[in-house]
Amino acid sequence: MQIPIVRNILEANDRISEELKELFAKKKILALNLMSSPGAGKTSTLEKTLTALKDEFKMAVIEGDLQTDNDAQRVAATGAQAVQINTEGGCHLSSAMVAEALKSLDLEKLDILFIENVGNLVCPAEFDVGEDHKITLLSVTEGDDKPEKYPLMFNISSVLILNKTDLLPYVDFDLDRAAGFARALNKDIEVFPLSCRTGEGLEQWYAWLRKHVAAKKA
Amino acid sequence: MHEMSIAQNLLEIISQEMAKNGMTTLHTVKIKYGRMASVVPEALETAFMAVTIKTDLEGAVLELEEIPVTLECSDCGHEFTPDEDEILLHPCPQCGQDFGHTVKTGRELYIEYIEAE
User: Fold this and answer.
1) What's the pTM value of the predicted model, to 2 decimals?
2) With an 8 Å Cβ cutoff, are A125 and B38 in contact?
3) ipTM for the assembly
């Protein structure tokens, strides 16, 4: 016998994600889902950000990795609250993992929650984790055609950070080409070329954060 | 490779629906997935086999149907299906705009029906 069902297979993840969204709305916390391939500089960008804005905002980080708490230790060294999730081989964070990790964080008066996803340009795009915005990072050592190869991630992100611009003289990466692909996929995406190493360009990213924290509180 | 998560969620939904309808034997599961849903059909079949092995649901067949990508032109609103290998970066066949189209279909992932008794 045939039974019609028509149910979204990832409905469980979406349901918890909606609950998290409501929680973040109620507590006026700006939640950001950071995604990139491994090594693009998610943790370095966070270290810089957490240090530079520590007197302005109360921030916390959920770190997703397959193994180790190395990244949580790195961000905790800036003084921010940090909790590590080990996915034990899983290629993305799910909303249930984030909900569980939140139990270890003090959400009172928190301004920004950074959720650093597992390094991967494919799967994290399919799993919402209650975030207000998805932020994709790409480093100039990776190739400027990544947006063309992995379109979904760029299509659904609010911000594209192009990291490691200090290495531009040594690689064949065309900033305009990468930004052009990203904008063709998503006309509203904001593109911030920057270097965590030299600090160049970070100010525009901080300005974006300030603007969106203010919007969340309004 | 998030097919394992998909398979686990699939199993959960199927078990609920079968229990609700008093069914015990599963024959077929019909799934529709969008071309942009990052699903590899063979990987999903293998993952589903792995989560059902030595259970009452072992041996059920997954039927997978791809839903093409449909874009709505950011300029003239014309809806079109891009070529296979240029999923999102495709000029509008009506007005030529090649920028910032909206994805109308192609991100779906759902069970359409099961055949069971």
Assistant:
1) 0.92
2) yes
3) 0.88
| C-beta neighbour count of A102 within 10 angstroms | 19
Q: Are B39 and B6 in contact (CB under 8 A)?
A: yes
The distance of B117 to chain A (nearest Cα, Å) reads 6
Given a contact cutoff of 8 angstroms between Cβ atoms, the answer to whether A89 and B2 are in contact is no
pLDDT digits (tens, 9 = 90+) for B30-42: 999 999 888 999 9
Chain B contacts of A13, Cβ < 8 Å?
5, 9
Mean pLDDT in consecutive groups of 10 residues from the start of chain A, 218 residues: 94 96 98 97 97 97 92 93 90 95 96 96 93 98 90 95 98 95 93 97 98 96
CB count within 10 Å of CB B5 equals 21
Which of A9, A90, A126 is nearest residue B111 as measured by Cβ atoms? A9
In 10 A of CB A210, how many CB atoms?
Answer: 13
Rounded distance between C-alpha atoms, residue A137 and residue A34, angstroms: 7
- Between vectors from CA A35 to CA A127 and to CA A31, what angle results, nearest 5°? 70
Which residue in A178, A170, A196, A150 sits closest to A43, CA to CA? A196
Is B88's pLDDT higher than 90?
no
CB pairs under 8 A between A and B: 95
B interface test, pick of A5, A7, A9 with most B CB neighbours within 10 Å? A9
Q: Cβ A155–B88 below 8 Å, yes or no?
A: yes
